[in-house]
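Readers of this paper often ask what the protein records in our data store actually look like. Such a record has a labelled line for the sequence and another for the backbone structure tokens. Nothing more is needed to write down the fold, since each code stands for a local backbone conformation. The remainder of this section carries one protein's record, kept here as part of the documentation.
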Amino acid sequence: MNTIALNTLKARTQTLNKRIFGENTQLGALGLLAFVLLWESVSRSGWINPVMLPAPSVVVRSAVDLIASGELIRHVLSSLWRAFLGFAIGSLLGLLLGVAMARLPRLHGFLNPLVQIFRAIPSLAFVPLAIFWFGIGEISKIVLIAFGVFFPVWVNSYLGTRDTNPLFIRAAASLGARGWRMLIFLIMPSAFPFIIAGVRIALGSALVLLVASELTGAQFGVGYLIQLSQQVFRVDHMFVGLITLGLLGFLFDYAFVCGLRKFLPWYGAENSHAAGTH
């Protein structure tokens, strides 16, 4: 009986997913098409200098040329490597420290003022210092991205771990859960929605800091492409870089959400149910 009910719930969830996300995809494509047509019309209307605002068709031709030459691919791969490494380091450190400070009150009392001070400083303010300390090579860019990614993950990991329902903790303790078993099987699953939110926010922060670090000194990267295009007054190439960053951000977020639905079905089912009720 339980198996039949579970299969029925799974089938309903899949049907609801297809309906909701199918409608959202159609609406999103329609909105994107309307924006591109409006942009094309304004650029070709003569109201604005087409050199300052190239039409989408011009930007697409420039993107095709950059892809054919291999230049855009080289820039994207360089940026992806920096973003991935900085994101991985910052997320891991933020997760570990957030959980540790939530579980160890003395560690929290010792480190919290220092962490809060650094959190209040905008990450972009550390760009000159990172270059001064580590040069214009890869290390400064990775450190800067990791620094900006660290704080969203740390805050959410700390809050999620700290706010675990005490009733659940007492119930688990009464069943013999202690130490790492309590942490792994109760506290971390309870904090997981907070951690997911922090990681998702950190994805956007990683791209922002990636561009900032590449604008200050790099030989390859999407940010470097934008800066170089500005120096030679190739506005169409600047738009190629900007659109590439937007697509990367969209794909990162989409892949992250798809991964959650693939490996954590309960997460996707819960969101779909909430969307369906609304």
Notes: The chain is about 85% helix and 0% strand.
